Amino acid sequence: MTATPAVRADGLVKRFGDFRAVDRIDLEVRHGEIFGVLGPNGAGKTTMLKMLATLLPIDGGRAEIFGVDVAAQPHRVRQLIGVTGQYASVDEDLSATENLWLFGRLQGLKAADARATARRLLEQFGLEDAAERKISAFSGGMRRRLDLAASLITRPPLIFLDEPTTGLDPRTRGQMWNTIRGLVEDGCTVLLTTQYLDEADQLADRVCVIDQGRKVAEGTPDELKTQVGDSTLQLQLAPGADQALAREVVFRVLGEEPVTTPESGRMNVPLDVADRAADVLIALREAAVSISSVSVAKPSLDEVFLALTGHGTDTGTGTGTGTARPAGVVPGQDTNSPDKPVMEKAR
Amino acid sequence: MNTLVAEPSAARPRSAPAVDPAAAVARTRARPGLGDTFNQTFAMAWRALKKMRRNPEQFFDVALQPLLFTAMFAYVFGGAISGDVDSYLPLLIPGIVAQTVLTTCMATGVQMREDMDKGVFDRFRSLPMSRIAPLAGPMMADLIRYLIAAVLTYLMGLILGYRPGGGVLGVVGAVLLAVFTGWALAWAFTWIGTLARSARSVQGISMMILFPLTFLSNAFVPADTLPGWLESFTRINPVSHLVSGTRDLANNGVITAQVGWTLLAGLAVIVIFMPLSVASYKRHL
């Protein structure tokens, strides 16, 4: 309906001393879409979001929210956005109702309207039973929902969500996803940051990948994933197996050169169809290359990263991706290992 | 728990957006109006009052200090300074009021610092609200503390045998003067609160300012008993003006120049430290 993008950033920069936390990022988020900012911890996602949400001064470049300049008119921008941070920003000493009432009052609602809005939002987010309970007794999921509800009081057209599901259990995570989809159906635009490829995949219309403060890729989740293949075949060769032969066999079957780690005899190769893993295994058996384990994994963020940047996600300030893996994705056994097998067959 | 708004992802093809961002942009205002600032300050004061009611232990210092100090000082110093306890009380009580109110201001600064470190302040910062409201709101609520502190001190004095010559009106005037001064000075401690790294350091810095100010004044001893250089300092010390002002009001029922100086000093502190606090709070963004 309007050509003005919800978010436009040109050459956004944030410096902390000599360190560039955000390094010349361009961004355009269209009205009515869910835009995902994907990257590991410490990539600059939160910093970028905070600059867009007027919470951090912009050191370079410029940003506009619905055409309003963020640096020049922060007060106007604050009337257009709702911000839900990584850690619940609600008052622990107040009840859920009191929190929402307070935020409503602070945004100019009359006392009665603030009360009605609080009631409506608590109902909408399934928190009416906990309305008068102390926030400190809330579960993580309930806090997040209350936090999100608090961002929606004035129905802002743009919502920023900073890692909305980090640390949530799979069920609560699914609920959160549905809630976020609901926001967009109501006409909101959502910009969310996430560490999880599958979250971006599930929710986002478009995604940009950020690494070390720079944007390394942008596109639909499908476009991103095709860069790394739909899934990955991971082979662990038995000690003493002929690695060169194995590579040749894999290449012959899949037409794709495997990424190998010669020291450990590990090789990874993208698969467009998971079924083709069987062809590789049969061919290896025929070539008498013995393997100690095999697995097929959906591409993880790490692999997307590896494909896009040539390095894994564990180069920054620690990945943390292994702490709270989402349901649909491979459960990581080791935070620092870039490959996360789905089904590991021993021998 | 399960009554969430949205249907599952099947509803992906979306209907036309119901939110019109152009209209939303047109509705925005460049800065908060005076009325907004007022309402937001009251909303923040409401929040602070709620918190006080939930955490009554915050009042321990406000309540205990006047009771304890009045009794202690009266019996320990009374004989030495004024010959006996009864004649020391008119000198002491206004001094204790000043001291208590100052300590209470410090608590305002410390709690402001603690509060600002909490996640909820991130939300306050992201809301289109006046930048002065988060500071001024709690300070409005703190008026109650100053009131409690001042009233309790006078009550304790009455119990010990203090009979203020200024009558009820004089005492009320003295209490109001103390409350105003406390509120005004709290802006200075709030400023320290917005600058310091932690609540603990606010406490440390504030103590270093407060102790010399209260003890190097005429709060507990007649100033003319002090060495000359110290006496000149106590004459310019604003705490002395507050103490003299409350003495004049409570003991004699007269409004003197001391009262005027105290009010002036209070206003000066507000004029200087209110903008400083707001500016420093903004920098925290």
TrEMBL record, chain A:
GO terms for cellular component: plasma membrane. It is found in: Cell membrane. This is ABC transporter. Keywords: Antibiotic resistance, ATP-binding, Cell membrane, Membrane, Nucleotide-binding, Translocase, Transport. The lineage of its organism: Bacteria, Bacillati, Actinomycetota, Actinomycetes, Frankiales. GO terms for molecular function: ATP binding; ATP hydrolysis activity. Residues 7-237 form the ABC transporter domain. Pfam families: ABC_tran, DrrA1-3_C. It is a peripheral membrane protein. InterPro entries: AAA+_ATPase (IPR003593), ABC_transporter-like_ATP-bd (IPR003439), ABC_transporter-like_CS (IPR017871), ABC_transporter_ATP-binding (IPR050763), DrrA (IPR005894), DrrA1/2-like_C (IPR025302), P-loop_NTPase (IPR027417). PROSITE patterns: ABC_TRANSPORTER_1 (PS00211), ABC_TRANSPORTER_2 (PS50893). Residues 313-347 are annotated as: Disordered. Signal peptide: none annotated. Belongs to the ABC transporter superfamily. Drug exporter-1 (DrugE1) (TC 3.A.1.105) family. GO terms for biological process: daunorubicin transport; doxorubicin transport; response to antibiotic. SMART domains: AAA (SM00382). The keyword Transport applies.
From TrEMBL, chain B:
It comes from the Bacteria. Its main location: membrane. One of its GO terms (biological process) is response to antibiotic. Residues 57-284 form the ABC transmembrane type-2 domain. The keyword Transmembrane helix applies. GO terms for molecular function: ABC-type transporter activity. Keywords: Antibiotic resistance, Cell membrane, Membrane, Transmembrane, Transmembrane helix, Transport. It is found in: Cell membrane; Membrane. InterPro entries: ABC2_TM, ABC2_TM_bact-type, ABC_2_transport, Nod_factor_ABC_transporter. The chain crosses the membrane at residues 59-81, 87-110, 143-162, 168-192, 204-223, 259-281. The keyword DNA-binding does not apply. GO terms for cellular component: ATP-binding cassette (ABC) transporter complex. It holds the Pfam family ABC2_membrane. It is a multi-pass membrane protein. Belongs to the ABC-2 integral membrane protein family. This is Transport permease protein.
